[in-house]
């Protein structure tokens, strides 16, 4: 395993459910293997796309173990270990370490709008487990903004090795490079791949490779290598889909895209509801456009 398992295209995996909404661990393991065969570099089980918030403790642990067992050599597993507080997040990081994961992805405390002291203590506590910690900045859902200055401090204190940047502000890639040159910045929003790659991002924790892995890997590789001749046509074709990654209905949209491309996306657990007819139609149109252009 590489010493930087968070780099490259690391897929925030959707989680398949059976008709009774029980977790389909066999289907999930097959999906992990397929992503590896399709050129992706790793997976993030138990991220938001994996609906970790509606899994019980056994299910959540089983998903991590299934991902590790299915991952071939050289393919990274970086579980999400988000929790309301540091004690639970540390416990999930310990479970990930015991299962054989290579790093963890960690949101700030998300039960309330934590202040800077609480955020610093939260990451320091989970870092004690010994696995590399990738911070996840999602100020929309957590109401806690990991500003470039705060991320740089977390890195300087040894609590994190990278940050998944989901603020939607590509300027932060440049700020982070100035404040913490040794920190890896990872693309967190699928519809800012090219912009963040130009700013120096080294990885992409991605949603839409669940359905179109080969096209997304080509896009990322071209973008980070500066091959705009290849990247821009791909980006323009995929962007109507990639924009759904930053919308409230992103899980449903990505699962529908999986269904339409021959994978098993399927239903979500409550409280997520099926897409409204208008949104369903918009996703279908975008998928048809991508498939007609040869995206796979």
Automatic annotation (TrEMBL):
Pfam family, one: DHDPS
InterPro entries registered for this protein in UniProt: Aldolase_TIM, DapA-like
Keyword Nucleotide-binding: no
Domain of life: Bacteria
SMART domains in the record: DHDPS
Annotated keywords: Lyase
Keyword Lyase: yes
Alphabetized Gene3D superfamilies for the sequence: Aldolase class I (3.20.20.70)
Stated family: Belongs to the DapA family.
Protein name: Dihydrodipicolinate synthase family protein
Organism whose genome encodes this protein: Dactylosporangium maewongense
